[in-house]
């Protein structure tokens, strides 16, 4: 990256001159060569890692080195190739180099797969026979699917409602308490851990064994007050879903709280003060001033949590594996695809999830345009 | 503020309520943490809160001898009251003392008294076991014994790190290049492409899994580091690009102009000027992406499958839950090991993490 490799100032370079008419054969050859060398080198490294029987720690270290330096090297070499062209061509090539890798990856691994999944959803289990909308019709006649849809609705409604209200409540309490930072840290902490770890934590809280001595916290509390111990996540259908949703609330309330907390601090103090002078109570201030003021934030947080709960997978998978009528759409998808090898129906379930988030996509785009994104 | 300070009693109430909520939030994790240090047998026999000093019934050493030919199927008379055999098994109260079978066949009852108990047996064995794997003794046909170790968590820990570091750096770098181009280069299709990327923010990744898995199987990328890096990169790119765009597009224009006058190319400006300036933003979104990858279960489950040498921790723990649902000593310590990295990052870099999260609030 020394100044030798960047000889020209691209913005102020004049776009006329005799050399510009020549086809830069040398530059084209160089760029083709650079691309080829990149493919060969990284392909070779990939094969080396796949076939090598190195010590796992050495492999890990080398792999990290390759992954991190490799990307930069690709950009660097492509940019170097682009600098062999005359200015006018280079200015057209440069954006392609800058956004190219992002577009390629998104196209290959997100955009095209989404279209291919849509296509697969019109085919049968083995993807060799066109069945039209049969898979979509099957969703409404499948008993398990009915339960999964019901549960997903439960997750979205109860989970989102609880996260948003609790988050708002805690944000306001924390704002007025004497240990705001500590409280926010504690509530927020579950956000950082994985759903799998959270699953273990709560499995232990809900643990049930027959007899008087309970090692699960919830059952110990229940027996302490003279109640009967319960198998919370399996036998209490359909209430067991609520105990799974509780885990989501425990994890996601911190997210809502942090964002609401920032929004509340943005409410101008003089408006609140004026309301107090006029004799408005705290509750009235909350509903008449705070809520309208942060309504935009509430909308954002709500949509985020809705999208998140729609796709809920890990919690259910770890806690019950979808047994005891706790199945949701995402676990059904996994089951159909990986256990029953029903590619058509599995794809259909993925598309159902996609359809469910389309309103959110539209809201996002509108929001972005409103913010003057472009 | 003045008005607020006046209400002292309401502040106390606020503190109490919030303190109670915080306690509820903290207790489940605390239970896991304490249990992970308890011996396996203790975890299964008593609750984790019993490591704290607590009152319980302890044997006073005295025993009560009942007549040897007592019929256990009949009501049994002790100290003027009658009990059944079942009741005596779990203990009965007589005059402030607790009686329980000491030896049922010899017909002796032991007398127990209330007393404070504090004997926390804590151990690091769970961590040793779960990190290095359990030992299995295998007997071969010729009678010789070999000791084999099951795969432990330490391998999975390194795998997770090997996956998470590049799966953070690669998307952040690629997205920064793209964000720079979207913000400061002019090219046809700029707006349309960026709108598509924003639309991708909330696409459920389930939609992409099946076709990508087919491609990976065809290319031999399944279960390889490169494959999972690319998958995480692609799934994280929309958010990271959006976040970096918001930052890079806000940088002052003069910065670029003076650099151009000095004859710098876009690549030089990007790597010498923009990247160093963006360090706070890079840290925020990097931490977010790192934790996302570190905590991920679904993507690894699908693209790594059951290749044991590249399995990540979340898969290992989920396996433990499934296959050894009652081995709480292993589960609790394994879960806590997997939480170490996120918790360390959370407490050390909380500021950046929160910022990344707020920027990522549009992601589903």
UniProtKB/TrEMBL annotation, chain B:
Membrane topology: Multi-pass membrane protein
Main location: membrane
TM regions (residue ranges): 12-34, 163-185, 192-213, 225-248, 269-292, 328-349
Location(s) in or outside the cell: Cell membrane
Keywords in alphabetical order: Cell membrane, Membrane, Transmembrane, Transmembrane helix, Transport
Family: Belongs to the binding-protein-dependent transport system permease family.
Record protein name field: Carbohydrate ABC transporter permease
Species for this entry: Paenibacillus brevis
């Amino acid at each position: 990256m020394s100044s030798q490799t960047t000889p020209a100032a691209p913005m102020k370079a004049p776009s006329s001159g005799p050399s510009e008419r020549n086809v830069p054969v040398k530059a084209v050859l160089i760029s083709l060569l650079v691309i080829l060398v990149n493919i060969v080198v990284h392909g070779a490294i990939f094969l080396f890692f796949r076939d090598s029987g190195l010590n796992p720690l050495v492999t890990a270290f080398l792999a990290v080195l390759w992954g991190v330096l490799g990307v930069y090297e690709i950009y660097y070499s492509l940019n170097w190739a682009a600098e062999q062209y005359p200015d006018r061509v280079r200015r057209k090539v440069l954006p392609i180099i800058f956004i190219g890798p992002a577009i390629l990856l998104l196209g290959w691994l997100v955009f095209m797969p989404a279209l291919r999944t849509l296509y697969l959803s019109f085919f049968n289990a083995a993807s060799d026979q066109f069945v039209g909308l049969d898979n979509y019709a099957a969703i409404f006649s499948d008993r398990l699917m009915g339960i999964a849809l019901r549960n997903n609705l439960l997750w979205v409604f109860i989970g989102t409602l609880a996260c948003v209200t609790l988050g708002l409540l805690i944000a306001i309490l924390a704002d007025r308490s004497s240990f705001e930072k500590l409280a926010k840290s504690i509530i927020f902490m579950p956000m950082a851990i994985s759903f799998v770890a959270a699953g273990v934590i709560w499995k232990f809280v809900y643990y049930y064994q027959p007899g008087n001595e309970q090692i699960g916290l919830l059952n110990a509390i229940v027996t302490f007050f003279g109640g009967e111990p319960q198998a919370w996540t399996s036998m209490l259908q359909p209430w067991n879903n609520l105990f799974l949703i509780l885990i989501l609330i425990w994890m996601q309330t911190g997210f809502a709280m942090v964002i609401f907390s920032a929004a509340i601090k943005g409410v101008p103090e003089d408006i609140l003060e004026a309301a107090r002078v006029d004799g408005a109570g705290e509750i009235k201030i909350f509903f008449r001033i705070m809520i309208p003021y942060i309504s935009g934030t509430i909308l954002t947080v709500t949509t985020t949590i809705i999208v998140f709960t729609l796709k809920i997978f890990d919690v259910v998978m770890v806690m019950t594996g979808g047994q005891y009528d706790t199945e949701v759409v995402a676990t059904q998808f996994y089951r159909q695809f990986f256990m029953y090898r029903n590619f058509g129906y599995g794809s259909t379930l993925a598309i159902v999830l996609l359809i469910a988030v389309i309103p959110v996509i539209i809201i996002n785009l509108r929001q972005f345009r409103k913010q003057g994104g472009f | 503020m003045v008005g607020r300070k006046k209400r002292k009693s309401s502040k106390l109430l606020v503190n109490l309520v919030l303190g109670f909520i915080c306690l509820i939030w903290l207790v489940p994790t605390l239970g896991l943490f304490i249990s992970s240090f308890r011996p396996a047998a203790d975890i299964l026999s008593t609750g984790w809160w019993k490591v704290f000093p607590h009152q319980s019934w302890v044997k006073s050493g005295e025993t009560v001898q009942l007549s040897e030919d007592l019929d256990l199927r009949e009501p049994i008379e002790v100290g003027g009251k009658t009990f059944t055999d079942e009741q005596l098994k779990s203990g009965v109260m007589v005059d402030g003392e607790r009686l329980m079978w000491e030896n049922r066949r010899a017909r002796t009852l032991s007398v127990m008294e209330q007393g404070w108990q504090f004997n926390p047996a804590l151990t690091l064995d769970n961590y040793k076991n779960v990190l290095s794997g359990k030992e299995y003794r295998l007997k071969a046909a010729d009678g010789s014994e070999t000791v084999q170790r099951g795969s432990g968590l330490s391998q999975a820990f390194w795998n997770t790190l090997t996956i998470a570091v590049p799966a953070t750096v690669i998307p952040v770098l690629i997205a920064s290049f793209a964000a720079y181009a979207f913000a400061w280069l002019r090219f046809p299709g700029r707006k349309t492409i960026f709108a598509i990327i924003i639309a991708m923010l909330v696409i459920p990744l389930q939609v992409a899994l099946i076709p990508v898995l087919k491609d990976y199987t065809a290319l031999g990328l399944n279960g390889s580091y490169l494959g999972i890096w690319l998958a995480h990169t692609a799934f994280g790119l929309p958010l990271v690009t959006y976040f970096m765009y918001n930052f890079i597009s806000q940088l002052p224009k003069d910065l670029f102009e003076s650099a151009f006058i000095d004859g710098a190319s876009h690549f030089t400006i990007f790597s010498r000027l923009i990247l160093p300036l963006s360090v706070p933003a890079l840290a925020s979104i990097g931490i977010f992406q790192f934790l996302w990858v570190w905590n991920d279960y679904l993507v690894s489950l699908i693209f790594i499958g059951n290749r044991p040498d590249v399995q990540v921790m979340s898969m290992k723990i989920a396996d433990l839950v499934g296959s050894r649902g009652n081995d709480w000593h292993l589960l609790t310590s394994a879960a806590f090991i997997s939480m170490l990295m996120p918790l360390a990052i959370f407490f050390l870099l909380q500021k950046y993490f929160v910022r990344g999260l707020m920027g990522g609030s549009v992601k589903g």
